[in-house]
Every structure is written in C-alpha cells, then in structure tokens.
Amino acid sequence: MSKKRILLQLDSGAHASAFDAVVAVDAGVEHLLQYNGVTPDAVRELVHGAIFTRGVDDLKSTAIFVGGANVEAAEVLLQSVKDAFFGPMRVSVMLDANGANTTAAAAVLAAARHVALPGAVATVLAGTGPVGQRAARLLAQAGARVRLCSRNVERAAAACQRIQSQNPAAQISPAAASQPEEVAAALDGAGIVIAAGAAGIELLPHDVLQAAVALQVAIDLNAVPPLGIAGVEVQDKAKQRGGVICYGAIGVGGAKMKIHKQAIAHLFLSNDQILDAEEIFEIGRELEK
Asked: Is the pTM of this model over 0.85?
C-alpha cells in the first residue's frame, strides 16, 4: 500500500507562504505540514521527525519545500536540511523562496523559444537580485554569453564570481546599468534582455529599447507600474513590439506556475533529489517538449 504524499513546508518568515501552500495542494500533495519562523538550528529536528517515521522504501512519499520571501535565509535552511541527511535517510527537497527558481526558469525558457541560447548574447538587468542571479546562471549554463548588470558594478562582479565558482566555463561579465547610456552599452549586440528588478522600477527606457537593433527577445518580470521595460505590457506573451518579441510578468507567469507544480510532483519520484535552479529548469524544459 503506497504511503500518502507528505510535504514539509519550511519558511523563515513570520507566516508560512499561502501561495506556496496552495500550489503544493494543487500539485497533488495529500498532507501539507507548514512551519514558519524556521531557523537553521531548528531544521535538524524537523527533518529527522520526517525521515524517521517511515522506512527507507517509503521515504520517497515524503518531501521538503524550502520557501518564503527571504531567498538568502532559505538558502541557509536548504543547506541545513542537506546537513541533516545521512546515508539512505533522506528525502527530496525543493528550493523556491520568493519564486526565484521557477520564475528564472520560466523566463529563460521563454527566451529559448525564440533564440538559440548557445552562443547568444544575453543581458540581465538587476542581475544581482535572487531572480536575476538565477536567470544569469541558467543562461550561462545553456551556453549564452551573459552580461550581468547592476547599478553597483562591484556587486555585479561579485555575482559573476559566484556563478563562475559554480560553473567555471560560464561566459559571464559584470556591467554597470545605473544610467541610460550604461544600459544601452550593456544591450549592444545582445539578442536577449531579461529585467529582473524590484517592483515599480524602470530599468530599460523605451528609447534605449528601440535603439537596441540586435535585440530579439525582451522579458520583463516586474508586474507593478512603472514596469521594468518601458513598452512591454504585463500580459505580453510572445507579443511582437517593434520587431522585438516581448514577455511581461503575467505572460511568463503561466509557465512559472506549471513548472512549480510539476517540480512539486517530481519530488515524490524518489527520495534523493535536490531541486535548485538548474534542476527546476530541466523540469521546465521537459514540459516544453
């Protein structure tokens, strides 16, 4: 008799994310155990409580989702989860705090529908944020030449170094993007631009967008006016605007939700998976086939 699928939702925030909970239920989780205010020193006891109640053959029916709004805190929790495992006593884990992994995966997959990523030049605006860094990671992993932009070029350089430490073959370079002329320089020759900035901040003015003659795809992940890319509408989904294929946040959001649900379901195929940006991207790519 198969065991019921149980998901532990670990959240560092004051309240466990309702969004993450709803998606988990819609993905087929039968029992959702939510924990909020989780600190790294509390993780071991929670994990052991989950893994010691079932035999090794049944552990694939238990999984852990690390979410919440604070991505850096979630990354620490993920490491604490992995540190609590030993031998065969482990369950599959997914990290998607603030939707960073699923959003980045959906954005890069949208770009890949129109531009072959190996050898492509891609610019990521607000590339030091959680979604921006993951989008840059995925683009570089796929063979694109990435320009990771920030208003602070030192922060951009540090982000590039982190990505290259994980992927020494990554072709990635930092770029300043605090002024329109710097943004224009970062877009020179780029076929793809992804804007992953904070809500309500315009990163790419319309005149700079129009002057980017090599640009083929523009993806804006900000849904709050003013949008990140002027001229791109929030509901755009492969919408042609001035010769550029445009995606807005809602246009990407449908694919993001499909990836999120599929990744949750994927956790229960075995007890040894760690689903971070790259693994979630591969799940999304399978959905594209």
From this structure: yes
